[in-house]
Design a protein that fits this description.
The chain is of the alpha+beta class and 253 residues long. It is 55% helix and 19% strand.
């Protein structure tokens, strides 16, 4: 059997196990072991998180205790912090040493949301980058299996509707940011240029400062619109309703 056929067979077995409703550990560990041997990984693992970000399932394969320790160290001290602080989703990294080490993390994504990650470690010659397509396919099939096993909490009808509303608000906010900021940039630039010009009259300078302040206020409102987390509206006046914006930083403090 060729290498490509072996990869296909790994994915086929994984898909069949998931479709049959097999226990997650029973299909995940063999799949990790076969995939690791196929692409030359010394250790691999997949993590599943709950909606709070806590690990609810962790399956690990390693050909040595040292490899497992190194992989866990990468997850605890690098990948997890990059996810929380920099919104990392996928990465391939190499580390100098004798021998050098190479690692990756790929998201377990279902319906546009990340629910976990597949990570791996390779020692010596770097080949995992050439296996990117296979590794991404592996993470996708694992994601579907996890969903089929009922391990991913599905949103209720209201939660799904609220999420769609918030997504619409955010998309509108992005458009508004782009279009309005394009207009605000020259306004701020010209106002600042005139205000800092030599011999500008005090009353003119005061009016220009008010223009700059108003433009910055508009920018602040647009940024706060992108931070809306609830689609619930409040009464504005008569029968008109509005989405309340999050408070400004100085107000929240």
């Amino acid at each position: 059997m060729s290498e490509d056929e072996n990869k296909y067979e790994i994915l086929r077995q994984l898909a069949v196990s998931g479709a049959a409703g097999a226990d997650a550990v029973s299909w995940a560990k063999p799949a990790l072991e076969q995939a690791s041997r196929m692409v030359g990984l010394s250790a691999a693992a997949f993590y599943l998180w709950d909606k709070k970000g806590d690990t609810i399932l962790n399956v690990v394969y390693s050909d040595s205790e040292e490899g497992q320790t190194q992989l866990q160290d990468l997850e605890d001290n690098l990948f997890s912090s990059l996810r929380s602080e920099r919104q990392l989703e996928a990465a391939y990294m190499s580390f100098a040493g004798d021998p050098p080490r190479h690692s990756f993390t790929l998201p377990l994504r279902f319906r546009g949301k990340v629910h976990g990650a597949v990570i791996g470690l390779q020692t010596g010659k770097r080949t995992i980058i050439s296996e990117e397509v296979f590794l991404e396919a592996l993470s996708a099939v694992v994601s579907l299996n996890v969903a089929a096993a009922g391990l991913i909490e599905k949103p209720s009808g209201k939660q799904a509707l609220d999420a769609a509303k918030i997504e619409g608000i955010h998309q509108t906010a992005v458009t508004a940011n782009h279009e309005i900021n394009n207009a605000l940039t020259p306004i701020l630039g010209i106002a600042n240029l005139l205000r800092t010009a030599p011999d500008v009259a005090p009353d003119v300078k005061e009016k220009l400062e008010k223009i700059e302040s108003a433009a910055e206020r508009i920018r602040s409102v647009l940024q706060r619109l992108m931070q809306v987390k609830s689609p619930d509206s409040v009464l504005y006046y008569d029968n008109i309703r509005m989405i309340p914006l999050p408070p400004e930083e100085d107000e929240s403090e």
